[in-house]
Amino acid sequence: MTVAPGQVVGDAVLIHPLQDGGMGSVWMATHRRLGRAVAVKLLAKDHVTSPSATERFFLEARIISQISSPHVPEVIEYGVTPDGTPFLILALLDGVTLAQWIEQHGRLTVRQVASLLDQLAGALGAAHALGVVHRDVTPSNIILTHTRGTRGACADEAAFHATLIDFGIAKWRHAGSAALTRPGTTLGTPDYMSPEQLEGSVDVDERTDIWSVGVVAYVCLTGRPPFSGETFRELCLAIYCGTFTPATALRGALPQAIDAWFEEALASERNRRFGSVAAMSKAFELAATRKNRDTGRALQRRRRHGWPATIACAAVGAGLGIAVAGLVASPTTTHAASSPETAPSNGVAVAVAPDADASR
Length: 360
Ligand SMILES: Nc1ncnc2c1ncn2[C@@H]1O[C@H](COP(=O)(O)OP(=O)(O)O)[C@@H](O)[C@H]1O
Ligand SMILES: [Mg+2]
What we know:
The chain has helices at residues 45-48, 51-66, 98-105, 110-129, 195-198, 206-222, 232-241, 247-250, 257-265, 277-289, 296-329; strands at residues 8-9, 12-20, 24-31, 36-43, 75-80, 86-91, 95-97, 132-133, 142-146, 160-164, 171-172. By secondary structure, it is α+β, with helices and mostly antiparallel strands. The chain has two domains: 8-92, Phosphorylase Kinase, domain 1, CATH 3.30.200.20; 100-338, Orthogonal Bundle (Transferase(Phosphotransferase), domain 1). The longest helix is centred in the C-terminal third of the chain and has 34 residues, at 296-329. It is globular.
């Protein structure tokens, strides 16, 4: 199907594209019967021939429609056009992605991040309760809209509503959807992927989303991801090693307890991570309000855990060449994974503004 303005998809008339990606495109449209603005997601022609891509597309619709949360979009309709293009019609979210927001306004304040985490806990708590693992929590998959009828910058943390979108690679842990991902297949956005997800582990669970939320919070507060590399291989190595610059070293005005919070959010061993996104959000609130003198114990804890991480990193560094080389060479590294030869990019060009009062 040639997608163009005026085209009718289901009951919607396409107006203009919002995004054109590898897997498909998303259009702003008007729903004729409902008379409201909607977003229409279409699977790209190249992927229509693949039954698993089509199945995954419909699975996204079914997953989203079962999650009951104001922080997940509303599914209006889904189906296949007469010429065989799968489509999904969602309520239009009139806002910007978190990635765009950071690009335009720079880092978020601690209070804004606390609000974001609370809202993500709503979306992911509802998803996880159903056994759904999102597997692609990134700033590009979070849309911020305005509440209180205000427009313009979401300057006040209470003035934005966050919606988690793109359940395109979500996995239903207790259903047959796992079969859509072959063992060893790596799906996701590399910068935000947990070590176990990078490995293509079949038993990836809710804790991979907890890791990704940790990376999102780090990017929001510091303006850069905790793990990076010039090449995909270097990025994998950084993630496996698990060591990262404490957020307070990059932004001195942050409460020191935030460092211990990140240690837990981004623990390489997943059973050392927070037990839920709600627990993570509550702990962040606490860390955000804790005075710096209270953080001695947390810092000691970090030092205690620091040694094994360093030793493990040396071992991983020696042995991982082979594992990562295999991963890089894997033709099944898909979705937003970057070319192995180039530095991974999530498209977030982060503007870092000097910020004296990070606690807001
Ligand atoms: N319901 C929506 N309302 C407004 N914009 C949307 C909506 N859904 C998606 N988009 C836009 O389209 C982009 C891609 O959508 P997404 O579901 O993330 O698909 P992809 O699998 O291509 O990443 C988003 O980053 C956002 O800019
Ligand atoms: Mg997306």
